[in-house]
Amino acid sequence: MDSIINSLGTLIYATLIYTPPLVFAAMGSCFSESSGVVNIGIEGTMTIGAFTGATVAYFTGNAWVGFLCAGLAGAVFGVLHAVATVSLNADQTITGTAINFLAPGVALLISKALFNSSDTPALLDAKLPMLFNNVFDGNTVWSRFLRNVFNNYATSFLMFGLVILVWFIFYKTRFGLRLRAVGEHPRACDTLGINVQRTRYIAVIISDFLAGLGGACVTMAIMNQFRPISIVGQGFIAMAAVIFGKFRPQGALVACLLFGFCTGLKVVMGSNNVVSAQLISMIPYVVTVIVLILFVGRSRTPSASGKPYAKSR
Amino acid sequence: MSKNKSIFQSHVFLTFIAIVVAFLVGAVFLAIMGYDPIMVYTTLITGIFSKPRFLAYSVVYATPLIFVGLSVAFSFKTGVFNIGAEGQFVVGSMAACLVGIFVDAPAIIHVPLCFLAAAVAGALWGIIVGFLKVKWGINEVLSMIMFNWIAFYLSNYIVEIPAVHSEGTAEATKNVADSAMILLPKAMRDVLAPTSNYGILIAIVFVVIVYLIIEKTTLGYEMKAVGYNKNAAEYAGISVNKAVLTAMAISGALAGMGGAVQLLGMGQRVSLFSAQEGFGFEGISVALIGASNPIGVFFSGLFYGALKYGGSKLNLIQAPSEIVKVITGTIVFFIAISHVFKVVRRRKKEVS
Fold it and tell me: Is residue A79 part of a domain?
């Protein structure tokens, strides 16, 4: 029984490690997708956020400053994406693809100029803090369980707050209502006096801000430095989670937790040699496809998704 | 609209402008980072053009990109965005590798067999995604991303199977039999590059084939119709589902063959991946720079291959090769917004 509780604790712990980057990026994706702008560039913005967070934290020694700057660096690329897609009506997928090349290129370029290496130096004590260190002492099974579960960086707990906040914005504020309406029927919104372009600008910039934070979750909590392999598909997985969660923040959270759990499972199980680690690594992706077939099926994208909106023709 | 388009509106001209702008943006970046842009660009350009060997290498680098570019361009015509080319490339490469290792045949049979295996594997990878879309309505971008990773780990899994794994210390498969390789004769390779191969000729054949399919066949017409307007195509009696499945199959086959050409012309074995190699994503750029036109893709593939090869030289002068990524990203970005100039000109015309 004790060992079951122990492994359960380890699994929850591992899930909480790997989920935050996905949740932050997925909440971002929720914003842009709901407003009708497809943003596949979040993979690239996560990379720039991952780099900026680690670099600023290294120089300032302050993790939270680094974390915030990661979001701001992401937002810069958000402005770029928004100008191209909202103002200039560029193809959203193409612009996103361009950003996926540009952002990692810029990150590595700056890294080489600053550190003469594509890796940033290790963050010794400028990592994000752990919130519940030394809270659960004692030596009973359950206190060990709790200590295990809560032995995580702040982002693992902040993400739940973020989801609640995003849910609140989406469903309880005027901005959220407008955001979703703009993604469904921009022309109707325009006639009602809602500024479609401004709403989309805000949505896209928020989305890349959050994606930047998501990137920083990787380099400032999971790892302790930026490396070229820091962001390998988390942005795409976050996008997948949003589609999976039917474009709702709460749904995306569940999808992210599933991914995080599978990744955690992969890491926890990876140490035994019974099943090939490669096959275990495949689990999150196979599970997603199966779950989609069984439970989700047709996910209804916002009607105006991917379509530029021109005010007058 | 007048038939003879002004030169300023042509894709070629806009692409050229985008390339110039991208190099300028790159230069600004380099200067800010404290590098000498002129020296970096000189190294880049001499690294591509100064010797026949360098040019030959550029062609070798370009060949797989032309295949993947064709794959993505073909999918674009049907309105599908084949972000799954990466995975199709990987399974194609692995299929060709297995046939190359385990089948024993003379080159004239062995090579086509490898290509066939790659095309079938890539097509299968594409069809699965197409099937998920038409049968259960599963978003294809989502499932393609999943299948890219499934292909990634599947390939790694196969590399680790003892019968496939190299006998040496390398984390890779055994070498493909020489009869499956498509290298040029030794004498020619001594003059050109050690990995110069017939791949570029095969690529040209497929450029022509894809061009003919798109422009001259009913199949191509139906695909374009679906790409332009799904509902109108459906109304005209074209089966949209069938068109999507066919497009995914052909697109997947092309990307798979890109994997084969990379393996049989250059790699000779598949290594254990630590990160996605990015051929699929580079192929997307190639397709976009080439305006999704097969002939455009051929040239943009050469351009991209040359930049990729030239970029690898930058490490020699301690300059970051990532500048190539910044340049290509900027090119794609400016191509994405370049239609603005067309609109502006059209408006001007309407006003006058």
Answer: yes
